[in-house]
Amino acid sequence: MHNNRMTITQFIIEEQRHTKGATGEFTALLNDIVTACKFISNAVNHGALMDIMGAMDTVNIQGEVQKKLDVISNDIFIQSNEWAGHLAAMVSEEMEEVYPIPSKYPRGKYLLVFDPLDGSSNIENNVSIGTIFSILRCPDGVTNPTLTDFLQAGTRQVCAGYAIYGPATMLVLTTGNGVNGFTLDKNVGEFVLTHPHIMIPVETQEFAINMSNMRFWESPVKRYIDECLAGKSGVRGKDYNMRWIASMVADVHRILMRGGVYLYPLDSKLAKKGGRLRLLYEANPMSFIVEQAGGLSSTGRERIMEVTPTQLHQRIPVILGSKNEVAHIIAYHQDSLKEDADAIKNALYAC
Ligand SMILES: O=P(O)(O)OC[C@H]1O[C@](O)(COP(=O)(O)O)[C@@H](O)[C@@H]1O
Ligand SMILES: [Mg+2]
Ligand SMILES: [Mg+2]
Q1: Using one digit for the tens of pLDDT, what is the confidence trace for 44-77?
Q2: Can you give the residue ranges of the Fructose-1-6-bisphosphatase class 1 C-terminal domain (predicted)?
């Protein structure tokens, strides 16, 4: 079935019909996630009309002040997804520990990881924000999952997606068969397939980075951005444009729509933390989506989805987007590693 009124549920049912061994559990789980995103979209859209703006007097595990909407979105995600028997446990940016499905509900074979509200520093400014999620399989035989069961490399994701609450609410999804985008038709309350088979343009002249961190960057990133800024008369031979929304969902969504690169690299300020963005519920799901749309996603040194996590809230450097441009930045990291190795060799010979 392919028509111009295909809802996200119909799309998933159709996709699962061709998936060997599918029982309907995954379809039902995604349906609950979609419902949660509709509830969050509704809350976000009310803005200051409801008492949901502003900060709480709590901080999350990251030490960041929680916004009321962070907490509301987290509650919505839990309530929508804990009851149906498809999940064994959940992990969220807003919760320090693993959230096991309470014993009053049945447990299922999947694990859900999510950032309930991404870009929440933008809430008060009415700038696009979103929700990011990733579905993993609960390891065989595990009925009471703990932290280690969530420490799976991104290559093992069953599904990843995000909802973006912008001028329109959209949900973008991959189950490993490409990337599709759905727009919420508020009149009927359904996400409708509007962006089938999204592919990121291979080439780009647009980068997204928080330039205020320039003095802290490592040399390959500094070299890349310097060359972008040099424009047509520099070694890249073309003028670049820049965007930085400070909502990863909004920056990644733009890249899916028209190409570009997004960088939140390692810098000397973040060195101890390992990066800014979180591996399990920001970097991995976005990497799965970007790769499925023909792009690349790397730390600069390795493919993000091949990193084995060691902590629930682990942070990681992120460089993702248009294939050729990300490959170019990775090559600069390799040059820099080679220069470092040569310098060590020369110093040893000099002794
Ligand atoms: O404020 P900075 O340093 O530019 O960082 C912005 C980045 O941080 C994030 O907002 C982190 O997400 P949260 O709002 O979920 O903490 C990304 O979405 C965004 O790209
Ligand atoms: Mg986030
Ligand atoms: Mg968040």
Answers
A1: 998 877 776 777 677 777 777 777 899 999 999 9
A2: 200-333
Q: Tell me if 265 CB under 6 Å of ligand 1.
A: no
Around ion ligand 2, which residues have CB less than 5 A away? 115, 118
Kindly report, residue by residue over 2-26, the tens digit of the pLDDT: 556 899 999 999 999 988 888 999 9
The topology (CATH level 3) of 206-350 is: D-Maltodextrin-Binding Protein; domain 2 (3.40.190)
Q: Looking at the chain, which residues constitute the CATH 3.30.540.10 domain(s)?
A: 8-195
The binding site for Mg(2+) comprises 93, 115, 117-118, 282
Helices H / strands E in the chain, number of each: 8, 17
Q: What b/e string do you get for 308-344 counting C-beta neighbours within 10 Å, with b at 16 or more?
A: ebeebbbbbbbbbbbbebbeebbebbeebeeeeeeee
What mean pLDDT comes out for the span 317-345?
92
